[in-house]
Amino acid sequence: MPKVYNWQLGREMDYRFEGGAAKRQFAAVFNINRCIACQTCSMACKSTWTFSPGQELMWWNNVETKPYGGYPNHWDVNILELQEKANPGGQVWDPAKKDPKTAPYGTFDGKTIFETADGVNTMATGYIPPEADWKAPNIHEDTSTAIPAGGASLPEHAGWFFYLQRICNHCTYPACLAACPRNAIYKREEDGIVLIDQNRCRGYRKCVEACPYKKSMYRPSTRTSEKCIACYPRVEASDPLTEGLPMETRCMTACVGKIRLQGLVQVDANGEWIEDRKNPLYYLVHVAKIALPLYPQFGTQPNVYYIPPRWVPRPYLRQMFGPGVDDAIAAYTNPTRETLAVLQLFRASQRIVFGYRIEQGPKTGELNVGGQTREIFNDTIIGLDSNGGEIVRVTVDEPTAERPGQLNSL
Amino acid sequence: MLLELVKRRRIAVGVVAVLALAGVLQFTNTNPAVSQTLYLTAYESGKDPGLNPSNGAWKDAVAVRVPLTAQLGSYAAGGGTVQTVSAKALHYNDTLYVRVEWKDATQDDASTRVEDFSDAVALEFPAKTASTVPSVCMGQADAGVNIWHWRADSDAGLKDPVEIYTGASVDGYPSTDTLFYTARAAGNPYANPDLGAVQTLVSQAFGQLTTSTVQDVQGKGAWANDAWAVVFARPYTSEGPDHAGFGAGARTDIAFAVWDGSQDERNGMKSASQFITLSIAGAKVPGGGGFNSTAVILGAAMLIGFTALGIGLGVYGYREGKR
Amino acid sequence: MAARQMAERHPGAALPPVIALGAAGLAIASAFELLILRTFTRTAIHIPGITALREPYEVLSFGGRYAYFVAITLLMFAVPATAWTLWSRGGPVRRGMAVAMAGFAAMSGLAAMEFAGRLALDTATAGTVAVLAVGTASLTRRWTVAVPIGLFAGAFVLSSAHTLGESAAQEGLLTLRTDSALTAAEVVGVAFALAVPLLARGVLDRVSVASGIVVAAVVFVAFLGNGGATARFLLLWNEGLSGVLPSVAYAGAAGCLAATLAAFARSRNGLAAAGLLLLVTGGIGLHSTYQSGLVITGMALLAMALPNVLEQRKQPENGRAQDRTRGVMPGAPAEA
Predict the structure, then answer these.
(1) Distance from CA of C250 to the nearest CA of A (A)
(2) Cβ neighbours around A397 below 10 Å, total
(3) How many Å is the Cα radius of gyration of chain A?
(4) Is A340 helix (H, G, I), strand (E, B) or coil?
(5) Is residue B14 within 8 Å of C18, Cβ to Cβ?
(6) CB within 8 Å: B72 and C243
(7) Contacts with B248 (C-beta within 8 Å, 6 or more apart), sequence order
(8) Contact call for residues A130 and B114 (beta carbons, < 8 A)
């Protein structure tokens, strides 16, 4: 099996194919701290793509409540258990073997889902969740681990839950793609979007079995599998609505809580991000390091990054997002001036922001968070399109307007 | 010295002659060897066998039991639940009929739930008859194969889940045009409800199996008494590129593969046979328990002769040893 | 009478060089055919990136097919020639074996011309293999020969029994349940390979044993890779074995065969080596008259060569010294 480099694991790993298929990569950052589980994203996706016969159980975008919820039920626990069984006690990280560029979270010493598979009977360790597991997408919504008598306080709540927003990760090393015996799944060179060729698919469900995130779904009315297509007509700007400028997906742009930011990043043949300091995604993932991949230890190098929830016990978060969690939460709790500005870009525009520029503003306040005093400046961040043209302009202090008095007495 | 030279020249001439003769055989595609694999003879049927596996025309046809093994070696390997198929063949009105039967305790003919896989069977023929058989694993670059693939779920027909889960509550579907059945709109044959039970496919290499442009194989399966029986039928000649050709008196090869849906078998995860010989006899099916007397008598003569010879040599050797 | 006694006393003597040369050519051609046509061209597609090498693939595929035709051409001469050699050496056992081979050759020819049915051909084939085994055992009268040769013939006949049973059913005779015969054939076949070093008792030196161990280790490692799937797959392709036994058995079998082949070759028993190689390239069970012909020729060559090996075992020093003067093939005329 060829070797590919997985920077999220800080090491080479086995994969069925050579890497380097994509030149640009679809990527997104989801800020878990801000999500209210309104499911507007889920409905935006459903009403765009999966409203037809046979797609009843299909939620390409879903929001589940952790730790108990899951769509399909217990998907992550099941995979973690299979991996643990295949490599008992060995699924551990070495956070010390770190390199800012090639191993930002340390090195994963365990086995990926590709490395626990035999490469002949299966390409990636996985399972097919039975139909019943897909029928309760919102099970255990808002279920807390406990209701502590003394209430909850940071840094870790005694009773907790959080919302996990999930779409296809358009992985750099997709397990679905590796698993497809018909080579019906492909990763696009121009944006790294992973698609199932609906003509070639024969419904063998090897992708459903292999995808650790369970984002490949079976459709009985056509006997094929379907998955999130990253709203590619919007991303590639072929949808008339985009007027020729790349636009974020439906689930992103519909986000009420402004938790999502999506874009395209430059990647090299190793699947590593080419330095692009003023791309907001590059900044959040590689400079500020406040956004982390979901279950990087599976080895697919997923491309949706999460700002972890501040109140959740760290061992749980480390299992879910890797050893970068502590630094990410620290950086998010007391963000730098630049981070605070970049966070304002979330949902400022429907257009994909390829770069940004910050104009410094006056100091407007002071805060004390976690024993640290922080100054707030009303900086302005300007989002730019791929040609450097201005798309949007937002300030750190949200502009307010006072309602004229005569309108207050209707 | 001279003698040596003459000898050497003789040997050289002999070597050249052998190499040349081999070349002639290769270029004229003449294989002096006879296949000794299992064989299946398609006799002419007295009446139209049709597609119903329980048609009486099959009663007199003799079955060959072909051993199957799990697919090995390349992804996606596995399977092997079904260990034997029983195959019969007939021809009628210049059409070849093949009937395959195998034990399967579960009738898996719906692929409604994500965990449901269909039972299936496939026949494989060399795309063209040649002196050596192609790779049974999807053919090889210079020798393609033609595959007839029957699926129980295709045979049973394609339904929307709301037609199956009749108690399900649905607010409504904005549109049910073909466009919204994505795979169907993309021209995927298995997503087409009008597709018959059998798909004709061609392949020249592992991983290159493709649906043929011409679909002219018919088939029908029936499940009873813990067993499937499936009949395939195709006229001798086919318009399809790389489709197998048949004819009275012709001889080709046939291989079998079976999938057990309840064991999650699909794709490479299957039980498959090696190629066996299929000959199409001009004669009528020797019905009513009759047997081919010439073949049997000659066979019996061989059996008796060789047994006698073997025993004779053994006894002689034993006696010599004692002496 | 005198001639017969001579032959009985010097069973390995006076083998015409053309037979020796033909046997070597046949063994080499069939081995090449096995490696290229039966193995490489059918498995090459699983090698990553092979699609980029279409032209070399086609050249090799063509070459493999040519090797097949060379082998079958040689075989058409080899079967009657070895039968004739056996016959001309005299003695009821050798003559009986020659008769069996003639029977096989005749049935193969008749079947190729569609004058004989499969039932007769398959019976003749299995019968010839059995007769040759009994004959070889009678000639050598050594358990070290009788056991391995008997096991090979047993495996061949058991494997053929399934085909014969089905052929009988096709011809309208009673249907027999013969499925278990195939598994039995596989077990006996592996037992043959494990017992085959007995044939080389006395000439099995350290180098041969070491090479056998190396081959066994390589095969064992091949079985370890991807769960042994590729190795089992090749086994099925090449030898018609389904791979039901633990991988250690096949690794051991390959090692024993390799060690014995090496021992024959190193002790200048080229004819025995060629015979054994032909058993491997022919395989167990009924595949085609080509593969059956390889097996039958191989068994006949072993029948002629094994007494030599036994002689050598009796006087190892003498035997070896003598052999060195004989040239390439053992059993070559001493007067040369």
Answers:
(1) 20
(2) 16
(3) 21
(4) helix
(5) yes
(6) yes
(7) B44, B91, B280, B281, B282
(8) yes
**Could you say which residues from 92 to 131 on chain A have a Cβ atom under 8 Å away from some Cβ of chain C?**
118-121
Q: Cα–Cα distance between C22 and C297 in angstroms, integer?
A: 11
In the block, tokens 């040239």 appear at C327
For A313-323, the pLDDT digits (tens) are 999 999 999 99
A131 and B115 in contact by Cβ < 8 A?
yes
Hey, which residues 139-168 in chain C have their CB within 8 Å of chain B?
A: 139, 141, 162-163, 166-168
Nearest to A138 by CA among A68, A78, A80: A68
Which SS3 state, helix, strand or coil, does residue C108 take? Answer: helix
Higher pLDDT, C115 or C95: C95
Residue in A with minimal Cα distance to C46? A120
Is B206's CB within 8 Å of C45's CB? yes
Query: Cβ contacts (< 8 Å) between A2 and chain C: which residues?
Result: 48
Peptide bond into A233 cis (omega under 30): no
Neighbouring chains to B with at least 3 Cβ pairs closer than 8 Å: A, C
Q: At the topology level of CATH, where does B37-158+195-286 sit?
A: Immunoglobulin-like (2.60.40)
Q: How far apart are CA A132 and CA B113, in angstroms?
A: 9
| Local structure of A106: helix, strand or coil | strand
CA distances from C183 to C162, C284, C285 (A): 10, 12, 12
Q: Which residues of B touch C45 (CB under 8 A)?
A: 135, 137-138, 140-141, 205-207
- Alpha-carbon distance of A262 to A249, in angstroms, equals 8
Domain boundaries, chain B: 1-30, 37-158+195-286, 291-323
| Torsion, CA A44, CA A50, CA A51, CA A53, rounded to 10 | -170
Residue B186: phi, psi to the nearest 5? -80, 0
**CA–CA separation, C132 vs C127, rounded Å?**
9
B253 Cβ contact partners less than 8 Å away, ≥ 6 residues apart: B35, B125, B126, B129, B133, B275, B276, B277, B278
Nearest partner of A312 among A161, A103, A168, judged by Cα:
A161
Query: Top-level CATH class of A3-337?
Result: alpha beta
Q: CB-based contact (8 Å) between A181 and chain C?
A: no
Q: What interface predicted TM-score (ipTM) does this complex get?
A: 0.90
DSSP string, B117-180: ---EEEEEEESS--SSPPPTTT-BTTB-EEEEEEEHHHHH----HHHHSTT------S--SGGG
Q: Does C181 touch chain B (CB under 8 A)?
A: no
Give the integer Cα–Cα distance in Å for C263 and A127.
51
Is C227's CB within 8 Å of A121's CB? yes
Per-residue pLDDT of chain B (323 residues; tens, 9 = 90+): 555 666 778 788 888 898 999 999 888 888 888 888 888 989 999 899 999 999 999 988 888 889 888 877 678 888 888 989 999 999 999 999 999 999 999 999 999 999 999 999 999 999 887 666 777 777 777 788 999 999 999 999 999 999 999 998 888 899 899 999 999 999 998 898 888 899 999 988 777 788 898 999 999 999 999 999 999 999 999 998 889 999 988 889 999 999 999 999 999 899 998 889 998 988 887 755 556 677 788 888 888 999 999 999 888 888 887 77
The candidate with the shortest Cα–Cα distance to A200, out of C204, C257, B182, is B182
Domain residue ranges in chain C? 15-324
Q: Is the peptide bond before A72 cis (omega within 30 degrees of 0)?
A: yes
Q: Residue written as tokens 């039975």?
A: A130
How far apart CA A305 and CA A265 sit, in angstroms, is 13
Residue from A103, A56, A27 nearest A302 by CA = A27
**CA-CA distances (angstroms) from residue C168 to A29, A31, A174, B75, C118?**
71, 74, 53, 38, 9
Residue with tokens 């992804």: B75
Nearest to B161 among A51, A56, A208 (CB): A56
